[in-house]
Amino acid sequence: MKWLDFETIPKVILEREPDYPPWAVSLTNTLVNRTGSWRIFRPKYFDKTPPCNDACPAHEKIQGYMELVKQKKFLEGYELIIEDNPFPSITGRVCFHPCEASCNRGEYDESLGIHNVERFLGDYGLKRAKAKKSAAHISKQIAIIGSGPAGLTCAYYLAKSGYKVIVYEHFSLPGGMLRVGIPAYRLPKDILNKEIRKLEVLGVKFKTNFTLGKDIFLDDLKQTNDAVFIATGAHKSRNLGVPEEKTRGVYSGLEFLAQINSGKRPRIGKEILVIGGGNTAVDAARSALRLGILPKILYRRTRHEMPAVAEEVQEAENEGIPIHFLVAPVKVIKSKGRITRLECQKMKLGKPDESGRRRPVPIKGSNFRIKCDSVICAIGEQIDLSVLTDDIATTGWSISADDWGRTNLPNIFAGGDCVTGPKMVVDAIAAGKRTALAIDSYFTSREIKEEPNPEITLFSNLNIGYFELAQKVTMPGLNVKERKRNFREVHLGYNELMVYKEADRCFSCGVCNKCDNCFVFCPDLAVMKSDDKYDFDYDYCKGCGVCAYECPRNAISMEEEEAR
Amino acid sequence: MKKVITGNHAVSYGAQLARSQVIAAYPITPQTQIVELLSEFCASGKLNAKFIKVESEHSAMSACIAAAATGARTFTATSSQGLALMHEMLHWAAGARLPVVLANVNRAMGPGWSVWTDQNDSLSQRDLGWLQFYCESNQEVMDTVIQAFKIGEKVLLPVMVILDAFVLSHTSEPVDIPDQELVDRFLPLPPVNLPYKLDVEDPHAFGALTSPDHYYEIRFKIQKAQDEAVQVAKEVDEEFKNILGRGYGIVEPYRCDDAKLILVTSGTITGTARIVVDSERVKGRKVGLLKIRMFRPTPIKELREILPRAQKVVVIDRNISFGHSGVFCQEIKSALYGLPVQPTIFGFIIGIGGRDVTAQDIEEIVDYASKTEKPDSIILWRGVRL
Lengths: 564, 386
Ligand SMILES: Cc1cc2nc3c(=O)[nH]c(=O)nc-3n(C[C@H](O)[C@H](O)[C@H](O)COP(=O)(O)OP(=O)(O)OC[C@H]3O[C@@H](n4cnc5c(N)ncnc54)[C@H](O)[C@@H]3O)c2cc1C
Known about the structure:
- The complex is a heterodimer.
- Helices cover 28% and strands 16% of the residues of chain A.
- By secondary structure, chain A is an alpha/beta fold.
- In chain A, strands 4-3-2-5-17 form a 5-stranded parallel β-sheet, with helices on both faces. In chain A, strands 7-15-8-9-10 form a 5-stranded parallel β-sheet. In chain A, strands 11, 12, 13 and 14 form a 4-stranded antiparallel β-sheet that branches.
- Chain A is globular and about 125 Å long.
- By secondary structure, chain B is of the alpha/beta class.
- Helices cover 41% and strands 19% of the residues of chain B.
- Chain B is globular.
- The model of chain B has no long low-confidence stretch (mean pLDDT 97).
- The chains are: A alpha/beta, B alpha/beta.
- Chain A binds chain B through residues 1-4, 6-7, 9, 18, 20-27, 29-31, and chain B through 95-97, 156, 195-196, 202-208, 210, 214-215, 217-218, 220-221, 225, 300-301, 304-305, 308, 338-341.
- The structure holds flavin-adenine dinucleotide.
- The site of flavin-adenine dinucleotide has 40 residues of chain A, from helix 7, strand 3, helix 12, helix 14 and helix 15.
């Protein structure tokens, strides 16, 4: 039997093989296709301002030093801070840190412990940074009156730029409120001394025990110096304004603190009332506690209106100090020339006053008396304008000066509490820095560089999926028992491990920190990476925006392409 | 070295000896042990491969495709529903001409949920461009995995190696595991030499939009490669035999020369049928057996040469193409089309969903076909309970 041979079944015979590749593959590479021409939006690396930098009155580059800490570059971190604030070991301890209130992380889990990191870097720098030596090479001399944070900061930046600087100070030691106001358990004196030493090495001359209006006069200083910076703060304690207040046993808070801060232990008895709700009141009460007394704080409004740093109020309560709210003194009762009781009145909150806080109004018939040995009165500080000459413009209660410390007189500058009224250390530091720039500009006509980019990265601008929850690192400290009868520092600072962990929580809002996300996600491989930055290859970038969307930190902006 | 191992582990050893470089797989009964052992090989350093854990079979095949596109020798294994989930990417692997090797453990498709063997899962994938080999023993499983890489890499098509659930996958048999050095002599070391690789140094766009101007020719080339694969598979099997001492052929005729009736089988039913052929011969019936090992490409020439020697051809299908008949039966009928003399073809369906197929079943099938001139119907249901 003959079978039909399979081989003879006719097959389709092609003239020639198709010369295509075996499957769908482009034969040239895709670089010929310049897909960048399709783009209608253009991505741009554009750093924004993190909210912390913006909230800091001194505009510290907070995100910047967090990145350096992440790389364990502590000294570089310190150098970066002191570009804007020469005293991080001080602000790291006492600043009320508005940066932390604005930290985007607060909306995620818990704000970053910025001032804890700042304190670590400040202390690290004090120990390790090479002291900058005197560099005075400019023949201009500036007199600074007052050695609080405003005066010290201005002195630092002027001296660093090469000016000759002399600081006049009423007290026997420089530091202002940092020395006479803020107690040692919050800011140890040796830290302050080291910071001041830094200035002396830089060539700043201190003339202490010189009081303006008594030992020196503005008219003379104007003659002998090329410019004068007035930074005398607010040192006049406000009076209670009640009958018999000039009685023995009634002290001003500042006076009380100044004594303690100079090592004295005033004898004020056992039962103490502290009147007021600001830093002075809280510090006076906590200092009294450390003398073995349990004081009471009386405040005429509520906790919400207290101007003191909130953490300090919390610590006072932790230490067991009672705070009586909505109570105001009306009369001092004395016996044998000494106070024995304070008559008070209950209050309630009324309409908001000019400060925006609700005004306390007395409740009729609510008077009561409290037994006491002493009253410490800390209801606020005022500015002493009597030392000025008449030609300097004032507001009636403070010196008139603009944001750059410029008064109505060309070579007279003023800043800090004496311009703003009592504010905070960092405000004084910012004023000192800005005035140093203004003074330099006054001599050199150099333009003053404006402050950070106004575009702020908010929480809603972040791509939060990229961040993990992480608890804030708690700072070790003394327990309440250990604080009794001594002025040892309460908070003890981070170690290297803690500071690294805490800085690692920073989102780096608005600022590229080379996380590579754009590089990884770009579907067109149009992100070019080099050692120190990325660039877009606009020949191929289609403007899809994936990079900007996937950027965890809002460091890429999309802009509409101009019509071509 | 001889070892008593399961069919699943025979697959693993095959993939290991072939020096697979990338393995991406998702576990599914009855395939799981294959990737378990392979992942152990990877973890212990016995196999220098990237083991990619994936969330589905679709992803497994996608990962294999990407890896294979770089020229990596790539392996995966699955079964049944897993193979079905891969379907889209199975097309892609073939269309992209990537010689991925896949071991599929034949398992019936759900519903009703089953883990037992039949061939519907792999036969549903017959039109994609994949080569398909159906194995009879654990030794053949291991050897076919090794051969599959060589064949696939020559014709640039993916290859599916198929074994029956439990009957092979979980049954231990002595398997001769060759020395690595012998396998290396047979199978070139990776990477695979592809005409176009996914390579950052030489960028190309892959699998992009293809207009009607080009698509047709690309498909033509797949069929051409399938045609060539018949010869390639034969040669590779010869080479394997020369080096490793074992060969299988793409089909295996058993006592067919003078047979009046030829049984056609695939998978493990072959082993049972072999015994029946011998016992029928003792009884005096001239029965032969044709084992189909390579189903894609279909060995048309061999079918046309061998089957018409008998008057009757009895095809045993452990599968059903709903609306038509058993798949092997259809394909054999089509292969024999146009011959001047046609054998009578009986198409039996048996053992669906893993029901046992015994020697007695096959004896009765032979008995029926011997005594019956023409089949009563196109489908002869063996053992269905009515
Ligand atoms: C008890 C207390 C606690 C505080 N706690 C905090 C805190 O925790 N965090 C915070 O941020 N802020 C705090 N503050 C506020 C902060 O200390 C001040 O805002 C800041 O010190 C103001 O800086 P300054 O340089 O403007 O003035 P000051 O620090 O007041 O310095 C002014 C200096 O000028 C000197 N001076 C005044 N008049 C003359 C004169 N006629 N001749 C020569 N020298 C003169 C003074 O002796 C003083 O040394 C606190 C203030 C007080 C009183």
